[in-house]
Each structure stands twice: as structure tokens, then as C-alpha cells.
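ok so i was messing around last nite and threw this chain in just to see what happens. nothing serious, just curious
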Amino acid sequence: MHCNKNSKKKNRNKKKNKKEKQEKKKKEEDLIINYSIPEEVIEEEPENKKDNKEDNLNEESDDEIEEQRIENYSLSNECKEQLQKINFEEDILHYVREDYINSQNKINFSHHVFRKNRYILTDEMKEKLTQLYIYMKNQVPCILEGETGTSKTFSTLILCKYLAENWKKENLHKSFKVIRFNLSSESKISDLIGKYSGTNNSFAGISFQPGPFIKAFSKGHCLLLDEINLANPSILQCIEEALDTKVLSIEVPGLPLQQFHMHKNFCIVATQNPNKGHFLRKRNELKKQFLSRFQIITFNEFSQKELMEICKGLMTEEQYDSNKSIISDLIKFHLRWNNEPEIKSSIIYFSLREISLFIEALINEENIFSPHELILIIYGSKYPENDLSKLKKILNEYSSFEIVENETKKKKKEKER
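result:
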């Protein structure tokens, strides 16, 4: 009896050990299936295990993508806040992808290009730059319309520098640049497209010299056309056809046809002053058929608040604080003078350029002129001496100019001594 009991006990222990070994082996197999499966194991697995394995691998792949996006991509503050609110069960990749896509249409306004070129980023200018940035990135032709001095051309030049650096870094375009051409009523198609000229290097004795349009068109640069509404109809028609067909053909009798195909990065930006106000009846009205190829971005005149913000950006904090009253009066005078009836109807127009010149002279250490004198030099130089009486009368209404003028005269006398 005793032996039978021992043998039964041994059998139970054997069964228990065998069961434990089987469970341990199963766990090990499960671990292998979840993380790294040799080919021979995959081939021997039942179909149901294969399905489980593929699901596990897909989950792991999604997790890796998720971690990689969060790790490598700098999320916006709005997206970070959103991710903190949601549950982990939700698909956070949706928020990451959405934030990433939105970021592709945003400009890094802290980029050194803006600081280096002293481009003052007001909220209004950020909005316009973003519009222009999206159009240029997607090769959408656009027209910038606004009065003289509203930074249409300058904004395009700065944005092209920004794009050039980014595209070079991303290997999208190693030599992107802007090619600028000023149009007028005297401009000819050959000036813009190119022309044949005599040469000793050609068998025929002539060769084609590409103009700014073909250089930008075929090499994938930005073509900046100033004063588009001064161009004659033949030039506008040529531009229209090139944008529609994406091919420019140059044909000369006796020579083979030359064709230039539009580069995928080619973009065209045109500027124009509106056919009203200072430029009433001095500009052509572009036809709707031509305008339908372009997106219009309107550059409004700077408000008093914007001008103050720009002036502040052009000076150090210390310089601005010590000249704040002068700058305030300068802007008030500038806006008032531009709105005088005789100025509005005149071809003479004052813009941000005059304000920038005034500030540059004011903060120059070698400047010996008072603010009053600087305004007479910068603004008054456009008028004969006999026509300056009204300008001086309005200028004298701003007391800060007179106060500083007296102080400056004392400083000049001290220097002369």
C-alpha cells in the first residue's frame, strides 16, 4: 500500500512538472511571436497565430511611428495641450499629423533672415507673408497690390531668401533665387523672354540669349515682375500662354525650334500699384482673363499702430525710449501730410522709406541735425523752397520737434566751441 501511495504521488508530481514545462514553453513561444519570429517558426505556425502575430507587429509599428513623430517633430503648444487632455486609447497620431500638416504652411518667423534684413514682423505682415509663402511653395502665381512703400517687393525678396535656405537644407532646390524685372510701357517681349544676338561661338553666327523670364521659368527660380499693370498687352499674353501650356517656344527662320519647359519650382510674383488715388488713370486695367491665373494679395497702407511698431523694431529699446515722443509726432505728421488734398492729388508720395530714413539719421551718432531739420531735408527736398511754407506750418504744430531742435542747436554750438 505504501509503495502504491508513493508511486501515485510521483505520477502526480510528474504530471504537474510536465504541465508547468508546457506552460513555460508556451509563454516563451508567445514572447517570440510578439517580438521576433524566425522564418521557420512563422512557416510552422497555425493560421490563427499568424493573424495575432501580424496584429501585434502592426501595433508595434504604429507605436514606433507615434514615438518617432513626437520625438523628431516639434509640436505646437496648441497640439501639446490637446494631447494632454485626450486619453491614450484615442489615436493621437491624428493630432500629430494635423499639427505637422499645419506647420508646413507656417513660416519660422524667428529665422535669422528676417532679423538680418531688419524686416519688422507686425501681425498684419505675418499674415500676408504666410499667404505669399503658401502660394510660392505651391507654384501659384500671385499679384501683390498696394500703394508705393507698402513693402510688396521687399517682402517678396525676403521670403525668397527664406525659401532658398530652407529648400537647400531639404535638398529640394540647391540654387533657388529671385530674378527681378521692372516692367514699363516701353518693355518689349524680347527684354523679358530673350533674343538672338551675333556670336563667333555658333556655326550659324547667332545664339539665343535667354531673358529673365526663361531663366526663372526653366531653372525653377522666382520671377518678380514689378509694375505688372504697366506692361503692354503682348507681354501679358505671352505670360498667360506660358502659364497655361507650361512650355515656351522660340522660333527663328532657318534655325531649329527651341523649347523651354516649366520647372516644377518655378513661381511668379507680380506687383502693382492700384489704378486709383495717386495712380488714377496712370495704370492699365488688367483683363479678367489674365487675372484669373493669379491670386491677389492686398497690401494696405500702414496704420499708425503698425508704423509705431515698425519704428520700434528699427531702434534699440534704449533709443526708442529716449525718442518715443519724436517718433510719435513723426508718424502723426507723416499721416497728416499724406492726407492733405494737394498731396493726395500730386504725384509726390511719402511712404515708409521716408520714416526709415528719418530714424536712420536720428540714431546716427554723427548726426548734427535736429529732428525738425531732418524732416525739412527728407520731406521738404521734394518741393521748391517757395512751396515749403505749409509743410513748415504743420510741422511747427508738433511741440516735440521744437523742444529737441533747441537742445540740438545747443549741442552744435558746444561742438563748434
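not much to say yet. Strands lie at 142-146, 178-182, 194-198, 206-210, 222-226, 247-250, 258-261, 267-272, 295-299.
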